[in-house]
Batch of 3 targets.
Target 1
Amino acid sequence: MASLAPRIAVLPVATLLLLGLLGGALAGCSGGKKVSGTGTSGELPDSEVEDFSVTETDSGRAQWTMFAKVASTYNARDLVTARTVRIDFFDETGAKSSELVAREGELYQRTRDMVARGQVVLQTTEGWRMSTEELHFSNSRNRILSDKLVRVEKEGSVLEGVGFESDPNLEHFEFRGDIRATVRPGAGKNPTRPSGEPR
């Protein structure tokens, strides 16, 4: 288990209400003009909006806000799909603590699990950067996971591996295999050695 210590609190999970009503009504969200459904699978969404946003709150305090260029709701699959995604995460004081961007994403309305795909980058305000091609968020466990190659870096020091699992603020994470570490000369704060890495 690797222990990194950026002092960030990211993505505590609260209640998210999404109402997939025809016409695009979603609790806690806003959207621009409605656009017609043109799914490549032939399945039409129940609603589709441009300039979509949704905020998850806990006792009135924002946990995160998701923005998307276009979002589509599929009631039968309990699913919202999104394109050109950005998620801002907030700490316990309400300050923005990190930002995730991806080419596309999925939000499951009942469980509030999420998937981000395509050039996924999570950047924290303390300078940590994680990148991969696909990332899953387990709401019930409050964990982010990926079975793809994941790169975590700060100040020139880099850890890479496959089979990644972490808390959303990257304080404690592990790779299950193919671990590689690079420490750049002059790096101000070096990552600690992950378990399983050759000494």
Target 2
Amino acid sequence: MHAVLERVACQIANEVRGLDAETTQLHPGGLAYKWSVQEVVEHLVLGYRLTANNLETRLKKGRLSRKRTRTGLQWSLQLMILSFGYLPQGVPALDETMPAPARLAMDGQQLEDLLRREMTAMDALLDSCRHKFGIERVATHPWLGPLRVDQWRRFHAVHGLHHLTQLQSVIAQVAAKPVPVRTSSSGSTKKLRIPAHRPLA
């Protein structure tokens, strides 16, 4: 996997790896409209699949999309997200990337495996497009318009880091807090009596 994506995968994996399946289903504050850990990861995975499907279409057709120009808004969004790494807060997810309510509960390790598997599959298609189409804009993002291979990787890295912050917030609210270890000096140790040093005769 490309280093740009591998770095994001590692950071997300470090957050979710130790979680059990019960914890990954919990919603912050018990509010169903707030995504659980699994829903955040599934959203990312669905984004990889959507991109992969788009890339596969271009590879099967053997040509680039006819729509290869950007609107003013798309140019601005590319500048904001791809150049400055800023993804605006509160932007609704695409319908295709909304996690489904009925699903199999997965623990953190399973979520990490799923994320890596889908990210690797998408990255392989990006490599194929790079070999076939060079530095052309290979496929079109619904909001950002047509993107080159390196821009697709940059988008998914910024998007992943955006949701990494969300994951950290969710985990902080739903994961069991470790019980603090209390130490008390009363009665736990006895005072040692050190015999007085006697001068040698």
Target 3
Amino acid sequence: MVPRAMTSDAADGLRARISRQSEDALGRLAQELLESPFVNGAISRAFEAREKAAQAQEVAMGALNLPSAGDLERLTRRVRSVSQRLEGVEDALDRIDERVGAMGGAGSGVGSLEQRLAAIEGQLTAFAGQLAELASRLAAQPADPPVPDAPSPEAVAEAAVRVAPRPTRTRAAAARKRAAARRV
């Protein structure tokens, strides 16, 4: 009779050998499938069909005015960005609040701020009064009278058109020669 321990060792060895052989066979099968042009073509066509289906779905969703997965992803990124910026603004406001609180505890207080604002308001009121006075002075001054002997702008333009010399062929040729001489 064969002891029980030997039988289990032999069975474990047999299982390990069958497992290795099946793994090797599956590996060879997968390798051959990947190297097969027929399988490669089928896989690439499947991926192309998936891409076209995704594009068609996006177009259809757009036609129905519904957001696509890409739209939702972009919106999610934008919301995260806005959220981070808002946190930065909140932090800045907290720092400003702390500084204002520190100013109030340092003796300068809200009363001094109100005094400064009142002084600025008084200065602005004084400037407004001065501007109003200047405006009234300018309105009271008479406008410069027109010069009686001066020709109108239309007459000046018309005379300039009549007086301007017309270029002739000899003048144009001379001008081209002077330009060529300057270039050299």
